[in-house]
Specification:
single chain; 175 residues; mainly alpha
């Protein structure tokens, strides 16, 4: 095809790749081939099918996540509307592709993702966590998060066991 070079830089014992360098003619030829390939009808159809498939997978995941979330909440029947509102809010925040939230990881079971997503959402929406001045001491942020998670678990437990609304409920205020 032509000449190209693999360029690497050595720093100490490590080698860092700078990529492949090629002549401008080769690069232009490859760009034109790619442009030609992307202008075909079959490529457009394949892209549309891929997009539709990804959208279907995402919709199914959102549905599964929200169902698992409602199972996790298991609020007293008197709080069904609150449970639905919370499930929608957490699902909307946690499930978009590229959101970087714990709900998007595949490394842990969905039940654990749901719990972590609810606790994270509550930490940011029902507490002053975002405005806290947490000292930069190893483990301090983790301790604060544990303490706030304990409060969130307690609040969720209240709505699982009781049919009355808690006074000055931070969850209701957030929703």
């Amino acid at each position: 095809m032509g000449e190209h070079w693999v360029v690497a830089e050595k720093k100490g014992r490590r080698v860092f790749s700078k990529g492949i360098w090629a002549s401008s003619e080769i690069i232009e030829k490859i760009r034109n081939e790619l442009k030609d390939e992307r202008s075909t009808e079959s490529f457009a159809k394949r892209k549309a099918a891929d997009s539709k498939r990804r959208e279907k997978v995402q919709d199914e995941y959102v549905e599964d996540f929200q169902g698992a979330l409602l199972n996790y909440l298991a609020f007293h029947p008197a709080h069904t509307i609150l449970a639905l509102s919370l499930a929608q809010a957490v699902t909307k925040h946690a499930t978009p592709v590229g959101s970087g939230t714990v709900a998007r990881t595949k490394r842990i079971p969905i039940e654990n993702r749901v719990e972590a997503a609810v606790i994270a959402w509550m930490r940011h929406q029902t507490t002053a966590y975002d405005d806290m001045a947490i000292p930069r001491v190893k483990g301090q942020r983790r301790e604060v998060r544990k303490m706030l998670a304990k409060r969130s678990h307690g609040l969720l437990e209240w709505y699982r066991k009781n049919d009355s609304v808690m006074n000055n409920c931070p969850l209701i205020k957030a929703l």
